[in-house]
Amino acid sequence: MSLTAGTIQTLRVAREVSPYGYFLTDNESEVLLHYTELVGKKPKINDEVEVFIFYDSEDRIAATMKRPALLLGEMARLKVADVHPRLGCFLEFGLGRHLLLPISELPEKVEFRPLPGDEVHVVLGHDKAGRLLARTAGEDELGPLVFEAPQAWRNQWVEGWVTKSLQMGSFVMVDGGVVGFGVYGLIPAPERVRPLRLGERVSARVTFIREDGRVNLSMAKLKQEGRVEDADRILAFLKERPGGGMPYSDDSPAETVKQRFGISKSAFKRALGKLMREGLITQKGSWTYLADSANADSAGNDSAAPATAERTEE
């Protein structure tokens, strides 16, 4: 029998060595079960004990009677305990020690990488030396565990965990299944309101249910709902501006609108249209004003206000 890290094995107590613990054997090799790794009553010589095999902090093969969150080859969602900029993420493992998710398993863009508190779907594996480490679970591991989304989910808001984040979009494991797994979904990049981290908890709306039961998602509300919120946000912004004006209009670049208001240009234009129809704002050139402010300005003030506001904006 091989003492393989990541496995649970039944071994015989060969001897006790104080102040360390018990040496266990499979009749070929021995491994130390330290006193601190005991659970329940102390074993006796020749007793058989069930232990988990791992490598300790000094890279020595060791045993524990504690139970980890997953075994070799298994998948689970583990919480990020700490992040190291060069090594990767350290995950809660259930043994009072952390499991490394190497930097090579993380997204290239730092903004897509997990932060402490995020929860990442991982598979337990080995490095070249046989020590335990995690690797990010992919579609091969997640795919067989999901179920098809019901049609009733259309336009419903759901929650889930980001399993992969790329430039083109973020993949999400949506809640709803047993043992923590549910429906597989994608939030395309245009439907993200901000970059999403691997392992981040996210809320999104189901926009489309594919034939295979997977879903497309959006972090944006329905147009009629979002239009009201966006309009309120723009109106509040204008009321806080000196002179009630801002250097943004229908002609503003999409990137500028996204950076300033966190919405798409189409959503921005819909909100402006709503405010204009209600007579709350007006536009002059590339500027937008509160209607009362625009009516109160004289021609001279019209020419001076944008210059002042531009300097403020810069």
Topology:
Layout: E1 8-17, E2 21-25, E3 30-34, E4 48-55, E5 61-64, E6 75-84, E7 88-92, E8 98-102, E9 119-126, E10 132-136, H1 139-142, E11 157-166, E12 169-174, E13 183-188, E14 201-209, E15 215-218, H2 223-240, E16 245-246, H3 254-261, H4 265-277, E17 281-284, E18 287-290, H5 291-296, H6 299-313
Parallel strand pairs: 3-5, 13-15
Antiparallel strand pairs: 1-2, 1-4, 2-3, 4-5, 6-7, 6-9, 7-8, 9-10, 11-12, 11-14, 12-13, 14-15, 16-18, 17-18
Helix pairs in contact: 2-4
Pfam family, one: CvfB_2nd
Biased composition (Low complexity): 293-307
Domain S1 motif: 155-220
> What coarse outline follows from CA principal-axis ratios?
elongated
How many helices? The count is 6
Output the CATH homologous superfamily of the largest domain: Winged helix-like DNA-binding domain superfamily/Winged helix DNA-binding domain
How many β-strand stretches?
Answer: 18
Count of discrete structural domains: 4
Order of helices and strands: EEEEEEEEEEHEEEEEHEHHEEHH
Major sheet: arrangement of strands: 1-2-3-5-4
- Fraction of residues in β-strands: 35-45%
CATH architecture of the largest domain: Orthogonal Bundle
Computed structural class: alpha+beta
Main sheet, how many strands, which sense, barrel? 5 strands, mixed, barrel
User: CATH fold name of the largest domain, please?
Assistant: Arc Repressor Mutant, subunit A
Organism: Paenibacillus catalpae
Pfam family, one: WHD_CvfB
InterPro entries: CvfB_fam, CvfB_S1_2nd, CvfB_S1_3rd, CvfB_S1_st, CvfB_WH, NA-bd_OB-fold, S1_domain, WH-like_DNA-bd_sf
Protein name: S1 motif domain-containing protein
